[in-house]
Amino acid sequence: MTTLRYLALGIAAVLGSAATAPAGPAGYQLQGLYLDHGVARVFSDRKWGVLVEDRRGGLHRVLGWPLMVLPLGATRYTPPAPALEPDLVPGARVARGHRNIRAAYLARPTERYRHGVFGSTVEAGALVAVDAVGTVHTLELAADAVFEDRDARIVDVDGDRRDEIVVVKAYADRGAALAVYRLDRAGLALAAETPPIGRPQRWLNPIGVADLDGDGRPGLALVETPHIGGSIVVYRYERGVLRELARRPGYSNHAMGSPYQGLATIAHFDGDGVADLVVPTADRRALEVLSFKGGAFRTLYKTDYTLGEVVTDVIAADIDRDERLDLAFGLSNRAVMVVFNRIAAE
To answer: Could you say which of 97, 147, 176, 237 would form a disulfide bridge with 154 (CB–CB 3.0 to 4.6 Å)?
Structure first.
């Protein structure tokens, strides 16, 4: 009965009545489906693809086209084993790398900052990295700063095929900055840092690292002050400095108190070979796909809905198996949404 009910909802109960929003001029199509028990999180699984967890802990598989959300029995899904690294900050994840950095994570829980952007006043006092031969390196911050983050992102920020670690560092008197750490024989060391926002308990949330303007060099994108009128800011690492390339106001990629930092993402959507940004608007009631090709922002697509706020991670995946990336996310009004990509690659 449950499966049949969900199949019926998948066809008829898309945001009330219409099964599909009209295709936008850019070739995207929006579909949505209400879940009785709401949407707690949206995530991807290597075996099952995109999954939704409702607020009672039930798991559902997202499929298309048209959009369907089907129950997945709990005995069929095996959650990943919890990380057991010593001093791991509650809620933090261990990042895995395949080059000079094997793993990285945030450690040494501390309450000396007490901002609580993730719903807890516990932050990290140290960054831990494991190099390619298994040696563990720890960098501990001074008492005037914390890592106000849950992810230590292992990425190549300068294109030299050696990875660095990107994290949010927050100063007690100046707020957050984006920090890049390198790992060499001497251990972890600060490679570059953006200027702090300038006021205590002002935060930023990274989006990701990719070639965003099409010149072959990585760019680092973030949303500055996502809770109080945020701006997308793009930086480039150049000779030990993070240089600001551009900013665009009117966006948010985090809800205050939420554990989810992935409300925005970077992926290839329009077929031009350059990565695009996907970021909610400042009120989180619309999702925008943006190109930064050539060094200027351009809106490729913007969802048209006002019934709920984006509250989950935004997952880029080929949901309808047509070899194009789609977008899945959850809203505060109990709806699972999917933006189906209808653009043909060049």
So the answer is: 97
119 contact partners, CB below 8 Å, separation of at least 6: 257, 258, 259
What's the token pair of residue 311?
A: 């509250």
Closest by CA position to 303, among listed 326, 274, 322, 324 = 326
pLDDT tens by residue, 50-71: 999 999 999 999 998 899 999 9
How many angstroms separate the CA atoms of 244 and 229, rounded? 19
State the pTM of this model. 0.90
Q: What percent of the chain has pLDDT over 90?
A: 82
What DSSP character marks residue 144?
T
Spatial separation of the C-alpha atoms in residues 201 and 196, rounded to whole Å: 11
> Could you tell me if 100 and 131 are in contact, meaning their C-beta atoms sit under 8 angstroms apart?
yes
Of the pLDDT bands very low, low, confident and very high (cuts 50, 70, 90), residue 271 is confident
Own/partner contacts of 186-190, CB < 8 Å, gap of 24 or more, are 187/137, 187/139, 188/127, 188/129, 188/137, 188/138, 188/139, 189/139
